[in-house]
Design brief:
Layout: H1 6-36, H2 49-77, H3 90-94, H4 98-114, H5 121-148, H6 151-158, H7 163-180
Helix pairs in contact: 1-2, 2-4, 2-7, 4-5, 5-6, 5-7
């Protein structure tokens, strides 16, 4: 390595890890806050969570975005009231909303994987549509198996009813991602 002193590199590497950890925890916390921004609806409420799931992938990258959402789920499983309506516990992951929740790390990973391939608002929107499709697919399937036992009814009540709400969040997330995505440290 010639004249490079490894001790001068260590603080930068540690700071970068700390900055990444900060952003992962911040997005897990934002997702928890987004769960409390709720319009009651049964069996799945309208929340603001998916906005932060999409942004975590776009801004943190595939790995850190997925980790941020896994941290969110872990907090809920460990008893921290981070799910909608201050819910927590494994029962939430096994209930009607569980498929949506369990899809969050996968959706964030997908968005984080896709977005860097092109630097345009349209590509950000397409990437986030794919992320939402992952969330809606897994969420609707579990909702069907756990609650409705009727796939057309599950699609209507677990996917179509949320389309307008998630379209608004998607466009907002894509616009924000375009503005800030190159400023947050990624791996």
């Amino acid at each position: 390595m010639g004249n490079v002193n490894i001790t001068t590199l260590t603080p930068v590497a540690k700071e970068n890890v700390l900055v990444q950890a900060f952003w992962m925890v911040t997005f897990a916390l934002c997702t928890a806050i987004g769960a409390q921004v709720e319009i009651p609806h049964q069996p799945v409420p309208y929340t603001f969570q998916t906005f932060f799931v999409l942004l975590s992938g776009a801004l943190l990258g595939k790995r850190n975005g997925a980790i941020s959402q896994a941290l969110y789920l872990l907090a809920g499983v460990l008893g921290v009231p981070v799910f909608a309506h201050w819910g927590f516990g494994v029962a939430r992951l096994l209930g009607p909303t569980g498929g949506y929740l369990l899809s969050f790390p996968m959706a964030s990973f997908a968005v984080g994987y896709l977005i860097p391939h092109r630097h345009s608002l349209l590509w950000s929107i397409i990437s986030m549509i794919i992320g939402l499709f992952i969330i809606f697919s897994l969420g609707t399937l579990q909702l069907n198996f756990i609650y409705f036992h009727n796939l057309p009814e599950a699609i209507t009540n677990g996917f179509l009813i949320f389309s307008w709400w998630d379209a608004i969040k998607l466009f907002a997330a894509a616009a924000i991602a375009q503005r800030f995505m190159w400023r947050v440290p990624k791996v």
